[in-house]
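Assemble and predict.
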Amino acid sequence: MSVLEAKITELQEAAAKQGDVVRSLKAHAKDGKADKAEVEAAIAQLQEIKLDLDAKQKEFEKTTGKVSSQSKEAFRAALTNLLERRLFYIPSFKIYGSVAGFYDYGPPGCAIKQNLTQAWRQHFVLEENMLEVECPAVTPEVVLKASGHVDRFTDYMVTDLKTGDPYRADHLVEGHLEALLEDTKAPLPAAEKREVKDLLAGVGEMDGAALGALITRFGIKAPDTKNDLSPPFPFNLMFKTSIGPKGDMVGYLRPETAQGIFVNFRDLLYYNGSKLPFAAAQIGNSYRNEISPRAGLLRVREFTQAEIEHFVNPDDKSHPKFASVAKLEPLLYSRELQMGEEKRPKPVALGDAVARGTIANETLAYFIGRTWLLFGRLGVDLKRMRFRQHLQHEMAHYAEDCWDAEVETTYGWVECAGLADRSAYDLRAHTAMSKTELNAYEKFTEPREVEVTTVTPNKKELGLGFKRDAKAVADALEALGEEDAMCLKSDLDAGKPGKVVVDGKAVQVTAPMVEIKRQQKRLAGRNFIPSVIEPSFGIGRILYCVFEHSYYTREGDEARAVLRFTPLVAPVKATVFPLVQKEQLNALATKISASLTAAGLSNLIDTTGNTIGKRYARTDEIGVPFAVTVDFQALENASVTLRERDSTAQIRVPIADVATLIRRLVDSATTWEDAAAEYPAVAKAAAEEQQ
Ligand SMILES: Nc1ncnc2c1ncn2[C@@H]1O[C@H](COP(=O)(O)OP(=O)(O)OP(=O)(O)O)[C@@H](O)[C@H]1O
């Protein structure tokens, strides 16, 4: 830690202590046990510490170009404290000591999560006429065997050799390399720094041996005990269960919602009039037995996913609505920029990105644009959002192009959604395993003379070679796609044995076992396995980013926390306050609250005797965008004041208009600025009196 960082920590502690002093003096002043001058002196001292802290933090940011880790930690601690105190979310099973990686959403948390999910549904499902499905979380093994999850959905784990505590190997290595790069006391020489940076960029994709080599090379130990670590070994992240009372059918809790869509492809295509392209969507919980859940909602063991599978003809990945996003300029962090010297994302028009081949096709770029628009509407600061393209070695061999939607938080850049062109991989895998053709048919406008590949297994030769398994091998040969069949043919023609995958395992076939021919045929259409473009979102991660980007403190002697949620996602849209405890005002407030409820606007009515200022502060903390105050004028001319949370400006609105106006503000049918131009402002002094 540098001298400057140590000073920042010291000032933060001093500010917290002085804040306590101010609060206690204020309480004593109320009881007459402290005088006004004492309170004012304590406030002045607090302001001085804060000014000094601010200056030191700015100096740190200027000299290093980074936000200090203490500022980040203090910010996050204050935010998490607020979120848990106001029951946005809390660790699950708390009275039994909690279990890592599980969180309960409380009332405002449920409401905002629901609003966010609904906004997602409106933005994608309704807008694109997607086919929404809901499938079970418990999934039979065969489905996840076909998808590759049973064999390959693993992370590398290491254990503390003395205590047995588990750690995720890549996270430990990443943390160690990051610490080396950030060590200001013993900075790395330039060449080593470059090497460590390159290693860091590749950690996510390293296998166990490569991770083990780095653990040995850098002498990485268990973080809590400094004990030695075991070599890394793969750990499957799925929760295993058994289905039925006999317990003989293996099942898993789904690790993603996507498979439910793939297995229903045939019926969905039929439902869609056998026409492509079409998209199906699913919102639901997914389960991953993460080795080391951390960072609150960001890495949990049960989370809500919202996934889209957009099926297209592999020869035509254009999108009919691409023009509507072509001019948007999100920050793109392409492969080229990540490999370059500057390593910085750039705003690029999506139309240009497709034209230059940076993004593989229009459909993928369309979803990147739509994702960017949605995140903006949800309250993510778009200057702190980027789309990072997967490096070639990060992508599965079948993927054509992948981009992660990442948002910057105090934890660094967080992947909130993955957008991938997965080619025909998933449908092909389920076709092979289920023996059900998951094809689409394309009718040509004119019949075409085409060269087709026919694969004819020789059952006798296969029987000699594979005995009981001969049928499975014959089926796998018949199910080969054009490309795989040609690969096999070229091996066989060269006199070598070729490979075919049977039930997830590669087996060798020789020339007499199969005949592969190219033939000219006149065809009216063709069957093909569609490609799929998959945008996959984690609702909890997006929500956490919205929390971070919405949180700020309003300056004053006691900094007051505010969550500047957009009206669209805010858990409560309005509060209704009678100015003072009076039966007539309370009755009117109840009536206004009922009219808001009838307009579908969640609202809270607060008839506590607290000052209006305190009541505003409590609702600012849970991000309520609008507050209706019922004052005495309401009894005279049936009007109330309406306060906007961030500007704290107030306007006077006839009671008859209140519900409609708030509805319009929430639906973005009007803006606060337009409302303020339409209704008279409440004079500053009168507004302040209410604080
Ligand atoms: N453990 C988790 N907790 C919360 N959200 C998650 C978790 N794992 C994945 N997600 C969310 O689901 C989305 C799609 O899942 P995907 O399989 O692409 O994630 P991933 O690449 O495995 O994520 P990561 O590399 O961070 O583990 C992610 O973009 C993320 O928003």
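The chain has a mean pLDDT of 91.
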